[in-house]
Automatic annotation (TrEMBL):
InterPro entries: BBE, FAD-bd_PCMH, FAD-bd_PCMH-like_sf, FAD-bd_PCMH_sub1, Oxid_FAD_bind_N. It is found in: Secreted, Cell wall. It comes from Arabidopsis lyrata subsp. lyrata. Its main location: secreted. The keyword 4Fe-4S does not apply. This is FAD-binding PCMH-type domain-containing protein. Its cofactor is FAD. It holds the Pfam family BBE.
Length: 354
């Protein structure tokens, strides 16, 4: 992988401006890294231009909260854990309830539970969010799929039990499955930290996920189904670039993981490609939509240097942004006509008429 020739780590905003002016003057391509979690590592790896410098924002991590107007200014180097540690941004009750209920393919042989989830997950009351993780487990003769329903309810378990009895009795949620906790504890639970971890772990910069490789468009092939609906559906499609609004039931994350010394890399990649292709008849089409945070360079990429092709870029641009892509291109053409800020899937500019 092409690595940066130089890493610049500003400690003040004015140094960000200075480094941009400098790289523009010298004609050296640059990348900006905030958390560095881009699925395709576009924030710190350039496949299309060399040499390049890296603007590392990790020292700019100030969080300023205005209690009066309930807003927060967060510098790009701050981690989500640091933000969560300091403040909850929307009102939440003192007690939340979380649960995980896992069913095997045998326990849901007629797919009644998973089918019902697909119909109701985006329409549940706003206080309740249930996502599903699907995993293939076991060996050759003993293979099965597990479906883990992971719920978070903004309220106590007694009320949750009533809601579930009415909306989703097929899951068979019991009082014993439910764990009551504070909102901040639920962020640790959701982040995969062991129960009882001190909330100060949110201030660690390191992730609990460890080192390894993954390809995602999570060795257990893994699918994560996250419902939309709620507030997501109330915002008009053209309000902000993210367009997947009312009518979108859920998004699917296809993921496969492997370790550094695993020699079967192509097996993992082939599995995810076959899975993605198999799912085509069952998901959105024209365009088959995608979530920009689940970035995938297999959808296409801008070519070398600053000359990008609008028609090619529209293939992946329409997946991420639907009709908002055209508007993003017009804005980009206006504010950055030279396409100075660019990467493999950046918004292209239109040619300027002379
Ligand atoms: C293990 C894992 C789990 C994830 N889970 C989820 C999830 O559950 N839900 C979800 O939505 N996403 C998820 N993501 C995706 C991730 O949240 C997004 O990719 C997000 O953009 C990462 O933010 P970052 O600050 O780390 O970005 P970076 O990797 O630092 O940057 C992303 C892009 O923004 C540009 N950029 C960064 N900082 C700036 C800046 N200050 N100004 C201008 N451009 C900038 C970069 O150049 C790059 O193009 C996950 C990623 C990983 C690796």
């Amino acid at each position: 992988m092409p690595k940066p020739g130089f890493i610049f780590r500003p400690i003040h905003e004015s140094q960000v401006q200075a480094s941009i002016i400098c790289s523009k003057k010298l004609g050296i391509h640059f990348r900006v890294r905030s958390g560095g979690h881009d699925f395709e590592a576009l924030s710190y790896v350039s496949r299309i231009e060399k040499p390049f410098i890296l603007l590392d924002m990790s020292k700019l991590r100030q969080i300023t909260v205005d209690i009066k107007d309930n807003s927060a200014w967060v510098q790009p180097g701050a981690t989500l854990g640091e933000l969560y540690y300091r403040r909850k941004l929307v009102p939440v009750p003192e007690t939340l309830t979380v649960f995980t209920v896992t069913k095997t393919l045998k326990q849901d042989a007629r797919l009644k539970i998973i089918s019902k989830w697909q119909r109701i997950a985006s329409k549940l009351i706003e206080e309740l969010h249930i996502r599903v993780e699907l995993r293939a487990i076991g060996n050759n003769g003993n293979k099965t799929v597990t479906m883990s329903y992971k719920g978070q309810f903004l309220g106590k378990k007694g009320i949750l039990m009533k809601v579930m009895k009415k909306a989703f009795p097929e899951l068979g949620l019991t009082q014993e499955d439910c764990i009551e906790m504070s909102w901040i504890e639920s962020t640790l639970f959701g982040g995969g930290f062991p129960t009882g971890s001190p909330i100060e772990v949110l201030l660690q910069v390191k992730s609990p996920l460890g080192k390894g490789y993954f390809k995602a468009t999570r060795d257990a092939p893994f699918l994560n189904w996250t419902p939309y609906g709620g507030m997501m559906a109330k915002i008009p499609e053209s309000e902000i670039p993210f367009p997947h609004r009312n009518g979108t039931l859920f998004k699917i994350l296809y993921q496969t993981n492997w370790q550094e010394n695993d020699k079967r890399q192509s097996r993992h990649i082939n599995w995810i490609k076959e899975m993605y292709s198999y799912m085509a008849p069952y998901v959105s089409s024209n365009p088959r939509q995608a979530y920009v945070n689940y970035r995938d360079l297999d959808f296409g990429q801008n070519r070398n240097n600053s000359k990008v092709n609008f028609i090619e870029a529209k293939i992946w641009g329409a997946k991420y942004f639907k009709d908002n892509f055209n508007r993003l291109v017009r804005i980009k053409t206006k504010v950055d006509p030279d396409n100075f800020f660019r990467h493999e899937q950046s918004i292209p500019t239109l040619p300027v008429r002379s």
